[in-house]
Amino acid sequence: MEEAPVDEVVVERVAAIDIGKAEVVCCARVPSSRARNRRAQEVCRFSAMTRSLTEMSEWLAELRVTRVVMEATSDYWKPVFYLLEAAGFDTWLVNARDVKHLPGRPKSDRLDAVWLCKLTERGMLRASFVPPEPIRGLRDLTRYRIDIVGERSREKQRVEKLLEDAGIKLSVVASDIFGASGRSMLDALVAGERDPKVLANLARRTMRVKIPILEEAFTGRFTEHHAFLLRRMLNHVDDLEAEVAALDTRIEQQLCPFAKVAERLDAIPGVAATTARVLIAEIGVDMTRFPTPAHLASWARFAPGVNQSAGKNIGNGSTGHGNRYLARVLGEAAIGASRTNTFLGERYRRIARRRGKKRALVAVGRSILTIVWHLLSDPNAVFVDLGPDYQQSRLGTDRAVRNHIRGLNALGYRVTLNPAA
User: Fold this and answer.
1) In which band, very low, low, confident or very high, does the pLDDT at 319 lie, cut at 50, 70 and 90?
2) At what angle do helices 180-191 and 224-254 cross, to 10 degrees?
């Protein structure tokens, strides 16, 4: 064991792990048994196999380590984190961007582990949010569903490209070529039907008024080669549809303990049932991890970054990149809310006029996160829309006049006010 002088130690018994795919390097720092003001340090290598990781856990327990910290390295951190978490350690996952080596220092797995350990014992790191096991399971399901839905969309796009190659213009006439009418026509093409009139007559309901145009759309050069590829693509789409249905069933089972929470989130404009499930999976239901709504917005990267120098803000105030699954679902919810006659819809339109649509979507997304935080923090809280005229009703007369004058001046007008009698 090497020894070093004590320097503002916050955590007495700490360990840090440099994560790799095949092996991990663990550094443990504890008070020295030889001198009062010294630290004992030991660095060991372990295989990434479960049996070796169990030996590492036992070694840390013998040293009475209380906190174990590791970087978020790909997905290799997960088995290590979960094993140590189950063993009762205070396990922290930290962002790799927060653990920067000093310039000019040599870099190795051993030095990385020692550096991470020293930062940890001095309280210079922040733990990343890792949800509890039930939420982790739900997160795996919802994320996989998003990926499968994306793959289904890409496969449908391949079908449309194949039809274009064959000169079949079905997508020009039908808004959804995979609707009831479109799918019947595609199946008929695969079965060997080539007569445009027969194919057009497969239209149903409102599509039947487009039969003459459909006959023109199906006049192409659809060959056996196209039929072979289309058969494979349609089978793949059907398989993906079955996967999505199976995932929906499983997600509903996993969501049972949080069904009431999801129902309350569903009341927010723009937040549908699927959106509520993803929100719960990504941020959990325990808001003690985020002391205020601002903390949640900052973690989700829906708040502008702070970058000041000499008392002035520098940079463009970019929000940065956060959880892409959460950002995607919040963006979709913000777009949905922007089309409603609600407080969030009016907020979007008001900000879009002044700052542009992109900033307005981020602002509405942050407002949705704030609402979600309050609903999850208080089990008895329910969503009540403030109404589209809420902001305008809170504006004073003088402020409203100034805003209107400023808007007219920006359009090139000179305004003179004459109070009415």
Assistant:
1) low
2) 140
